[in-house]
Design goal:
Number of strands: 39
CATH topology of the largest domain: Spore Coat Polysaccharide Biosynthesis Protein SpsA, Chain A
Bound molecules: uridine-diphosphate-N-acetylglucosamine, calcium ion
CATH architecture of the largest domain: Alpha-Beta Complex
Oligomer: single chain
Structural class: alpha/beta
Largest sheet: 14 strands, parallel
Strand content: 25-35%
Radius of gyration: 34 Å
Length: 514
């Protein structure tokens, strides 16, 4: 088997018409103590999904008749997660009898078929792929085997069950667990991945005959192989070269390692389908993200959740996008977005923060140091500099001056700001919501807009400016400012001897201002 690249993620729902095995049983009853976590192991995430949802996705990809998940540890929490994130799965509850054999036996109680192939996989093996499972089923069924186990040759087999083969290596005799193995058996480097295809009838029968007489006092699923063989049935192995694909997560070190490997595979898939990723080492993309052809992902980018990047869009450097839709040819630079829509040809950043409900139209612009939330910014509209735009609608072709703020919150409730088409809002405006500025209107710089501005009107309320001549020369004597002013005045007014003497009225005004 080639080190595989993941195919596009499938829905975890089982298709109505099964063309695959009778059932897949996914084991997820274990406690996962080495995670040292209050969260059940299978709910830890890599690539933006839980380990369990990754495992179910692979299982569902075989189009099984039934998809069964065996639970025990934190049963309710895991079941709630399944209800939210997985399609048509059947939960089987494992009882207090421990071991993988018992887990499968409990799973089989939920399997309605009497014959056919049953796959067994683990809920904590996130890189497993549907294609590998389909190959396992095909090999198993074409050989007419009773059991086919997926194995791998590994540099360090410590802890794994070892595959026992006949002297010439052609036949699989059974599996011995590490804890039960002799030194000689521990030298075997072919390990049991824990993923198998079984003949359903053989599996039911063999499980009814296994005991707990072993180092761990558990019902071992692995014992089924020796039983089937003693009954004269065919037991086979499929060896995979892709070690990471069958590796399970036991602790947080492995969680990070498999997370990095999954990311590497996801990036490879996108690059193979025509996306430029300039620096894979600093790029993180979740499993469910989609990216159009000829998009360019610059260094330091994280794309999370259901993010969807259009063709030819350029993202980065240094962006985090979650559940964000980016249109064709749009550009996002050094920004953070969450549940936002960025239209085709629009541009965002650098250094902007798009919060949920931001909807930037085609060719629109959210420039530098802008925060937006629940805001529709229509086609070609621009919020270029240093603004907060929340609970607002901004019409087509409108421009907000630098430093415009929507004051949407009065301390009790949130209110909307509505700005029409082709409006020019001056710099440093505060738009006190609820307020409406009509189509084609304008506001002066520094306006605090408390009243609606009619279409085509100019809204201004800034206090008119008054200059007190010579103020610095009198009030800031001896400072650098004074000499700068004096020099400038001397230069610009060469004919004047000195600054005019202040009138009594000017002196009075200045004192009032201080
Ligand atoms: C098991 C195999 C071993 C194989 C290894 C691969 C057995 C006896 N041994 O070892 O040959 O090399 O997997 O990782 O099968 N689980 C349950 N209920 C239980 C016990 C386990 O659902 O009572 C689930 C766990 O949640 C986990 C999986 O089965 O997803 C494997 O359990 P784990 O304890 O990790 O298996 P090992 O004993 O290490
Ligand atoms: Ca394990």
């Amino acid at each position: 088997m080639q080190p595989a690249e993941p195919t596009a993620p499938a829905d975890t729902a089982v298709p109505a018409e099964s063309t695959g095995p009778a059932a897949v049983i996914v084991l997820a009853a274990g406690a996962g103590t080495r995670m040292k976590s209050r969260t059940p192991k299978v709910l830890h995430e890599i690539g933006g999904r839980s380990l369990l949802v990754h495992a179910l996705d692979a299982a569902a990809g075989t189009a099984p008749g039934q998809l069964v998940v065996v639970l025990r540890h934190e049963r309710e929490r895991v079941a709630a997660h399944l209800a939210e994130h997985a399609g048509d799965v059947v939960i089987a509850d494992q009882d207090e009898i421990p071991g993988t054999g018992r887990a499968v036996q409990c799973g089989l109680e939920q399997v309605s078929a009497a014959e056919g192939t049953v796959l067994v996989t683990y809920g904590d093996v996130p890189l497993l792929e549907a294609a590998a499972l389909r190959e396992l089923v095909a090999a198993h069924e074409s050989a007419g085997a009773a059991v086919t186990v997926l194995t791998a040759r590994v540099p360090d087999p410590t802890g794994y069950g070892r595959i026992l083969r006949s002297a010439d290596g052609s036949e699989v005799l059974g599996i011995v667990e590490h804890k039960d193995a002799t030194d000689e058996q521990r030298a075997i480097d072919e390990i049991n991945s824990g993923i198998y295809a079984f003949d359903l009838a053989v599996l039911r029968d063999a499980l009814s005959r296994i005991g707990t007489d072993n180092a761990q006092g558990e019902m071992y699923l692995t014992d089924v192989l020796a039983i089937a063989r003693e009954d004269g049935r065919s037991v086979r192995a499929v060896v995979t070269a892709d070690l990471m694909m069958v590796e399970g997560v036991n602790d947080r070190v492995q969680l990070a390692q498999l997370g990095a490997e999954m990311n590497r595979r996801i990036l490879t898939r996108h690059m193979r389908s025509g996306v430029t990723i300039v620096d894979p080492a600093t790029t993180w993309i979740d499993a469910d993200v989609s990216i159009g052809q000829d998009a360019v992902i610059l260094p330091g980018v994280q794309l999370h959740g259901a993010t969807d990047i259009g063709e030819r869009a350029v993202i980065g450097p240094d962006c985090t996008l979650r559940d964000t839709e980016v249109g064709e040819g749009a550009e996002v630079v050094r920004s953070h977005t969450l549940l936002a829509v960025i239209g085709a040809g629009a541009s965002v950043g650098p250094f902007s923060y798009l919060r949920p409900g931001t909807d930037l139209g085609e060719q629109g612009k959210i420039g530098g140091f802008v925060e937006t939330k629940n805001a529709r910014i229509d086609t070609g509209a621009k919020v270029p500099h240093l603004s907060y735009v929340g609970d607002a609608e901004i019409g087509e072709g409108t421009n907000l001056g630098a430093g415009t703020i929507t004051a949407n919150y009065d301390g009790v409730s949130k209110h909307r700001t509505t700005i029409g088409r082709h409006v020019r809002v001056g710099s440093d405006n505060v738009l006190v919501a609820p307020v409406t500025i009509g189509d084609g209107a304008a506001t002066g710089a520094g306006t605090v807009v408390r009243k609606d501005v009619a279409p085509g009107a100019l809204g201004v309320n800034a206090v008119s400016q008054r200059n007190v001549e010579g103020w610095t020369l009198r009030r800031r004597a001896g400072t650098a400012a004074e000499s700068a002013a004096r020099e400038a005045l001397d230069r610009s007014d060469a004919t004047a001897d000195a600054s005019p003497a202040p009138t009594a009225g000017q002196e009075k005004q200045e004192n009032e201002q201080r």
